[in-house]
Amino acid sequence: MANYSTNEFKGGLKVMLDGDPCAILENDYVKPGKGQAFNRVKLRNLMTGRVWERTFKSGESLEGADVLELDMEYLYTDGEMWYFMLNDGSFEQYPVEKKALGDTEKWLKEQVVYTVTLWNDNVINVTPPNFIELEVTETDPGLKGDTAQGGSKPATLSSGAVVRVPLFINEGEVLKVDTRTGEYVSRA
Amino acid sequence: MATDWRPSAEIATLRERARLIGEVRAFFAERGVWEVETPVLGHGGSTDVHLASLSCVATTPAGRERLWLQTSPEFHMKRLLAAGSGPIFQLARSFRDGEVGARHNLEFTMLEWYRPGFGLNALIEETTQLIRRVLPDDPGPVRLRRYRELFRHRLGIDPFTESLGGLRRLAEAQGGLSMDEAARDECLDLLMSLAIEPDLGHEGLDVVVDYPADQAALARRHRDPEDGQWVASRFEVYCRGLELANGYDELTDAEEQRARFEADKAARRSAGLPEVDSDARLVAALASGMPEGSGVALGLDRLIQLALGKTSVAEVMAFSTPQA
Questions:
Q1: Mutation target vs A (from B188, B189, B264; most A CBs, 10 A cutoff)
Q2: Distance of CA A182 to the CA centre of its chain
Q3: How far is B127 from chain A (nearest CA, A)?
Q4: Do residues A11 and A26 touch, judged by C-beta distance below 8 A?
Q5: How many CA atoms, within 13 angstroms, populate the side-chain half-sphere of residue B127?
Q6: Residue A74 is part of a domain; what is its CATH number?
């Protein structure tokens, strides 16, 4: 992989740091009145999701990380691995471990397309679409006439996620949910 | 996608900028400091290891020559002083390669002025008066802060006597990077940038004085009365975490100037940095006699940014480099 110097650090660039692939979030140039310049850089460790803040001397470089983000459709799980398929027509399948799946496990639905992050050809992360439509499998019976009061109740969705929904929502309905916040958006 | 042709600043902001520049000119007119204009392109560049000069090749009366875009108008203004100009100021477009960020732009406006006969304290007084004139609200009292005291207070070390190993460990802890091979100044610069600067100028105008002698650039040196350590006779003014101005008790000794140019060039070579032609005419001007005095360079875009409550210099420039 190519090396990237601090002045090439831009949001989204993938680099190696302490042996882990990271995505650059922010790059701030700092320089005392007369003296050595530094770059304060925020990076997201793609293995752990943690945000690191590091300082580099201006002009220093980091090795690029062989990271690819690909669109893949979720197929099924055998209980140990979760299988995704490239949706570019190649039908190539990738097994994903629970660790790489992380919180996305509760937003899985067959035939939905996810962003799958590969590092050196291994899946390290799966990101759900921002909005997803899921069926309510369990919730308390709906209450008529309470729509104006804005009350809410928990509802379990077909993927296993539990979200707060308005009181008028019933089992069997399909909802649009924001996966970033885990919040109900509307009826689908 | 449509090409983004809009300015990086709002038109209302640029009108305010024009008004503030009028205030700056009035400030100097009242004091008998006259405005000069010196070249952007010169035969000498800045040899400072921490500045990257841009250059171009142009056809001049001497043929094809390399000319350097000035990183500040300092050399030309000092030659005017040596020629007997008396007190002068300039709003000079200056260029520094690689300086990119919220507080920096590749080209920017330097407000630089020189006061023959002024000591450092008189110039500190005038600099803070100018800043107060431009800022709409009172930035608070002026406080002199010794470089050494800032380090002692904030980091618990004496920057002049602490061992190199101690400085490296502290810099590593603050910055989260390896400083194994870092020189003293690199460690001090990092600690200044990360641990000290952000806290400066929030309760008043903080004026940092008595910098390490190695960071003198074109300033004289004097002995710290505390224990006789050499320190640089220069100051920097901070307002709300932002460095605004950098002033010197100017070096007037031609031989010392020549020696510092040579030391810079050697440092550039050993760091693998590109060679820069030093300004032989500046050395000649000093040799002919430049009046003793002080000078200061102030980042006008930053001052306007503060005055107008903006968060980056791009917001007060018609077209920052990405939009230029």
A1: B189
A2: 12
A3: 16
A4: yes
A5: 37
A6: 2.40.50.140
Residue B243's DSSP bridge partners are B238
Chain B closest-CA separation from residue A179 CA (Å): 29
Q: Which residue in the set B104, B193, B246 is minimally distant from A38, CB to CB?
A: B193
Contacts made by residues B93-99, CB under 8 angstroms, sequence distance 24+? B93/B40, B94/B70, B95/B40, B95/B53, B95/B54, B95/B69, B95/B70, B95/B71, B96/B51, B96/B52, B96/B53, B96/B71, B97/B52, B97/B53, B97/B54, B98/A7, B98/A37, B98/A58, B98/A59, B98/B52, B99/A29, B99/A31, B99/A37, B99/B52
Average pLDDT taken over every residue of chain A = 90
Q: What's this model's pTM, rounded to 2 decimal places?
A: 0.81
Within 8 A of A31 by CB-CB distance, chain B residues are 50, 99, 104, 193
Angle at B9 between CA B3 and CA B15, to 5 degrees: 130
Structural domains of chain B sorted by starting position, each given as residue range(s) with its CATH number in brackets: 11-139+201-323 (3.30.930.10)
Question: Which domain does A100 fall in, by range?
Answer: 67-127
pLDDT by residue (tens digit) across B38-47? 999 999 999 9
Interface predicted TM-score (ipTM) over 0.95: no
Q: What is the pLDDT of residue A141?
A: 83
Of A34, A55, A57, the CB nearest to B176: A55
Q: What is the pLDDT of residue A58?
A: 87
B5 burial level (CB within 10 Å; 0-12, 13-18, 19+):
exposed
| Degrees to nearest 5, angle at CA B47 with B46 and B53 | 45
- Whether the CB-CB separation of A156 and A139 falls below 8 Å is answered with yes
**Number of domains forming the structure of chain A:** 3
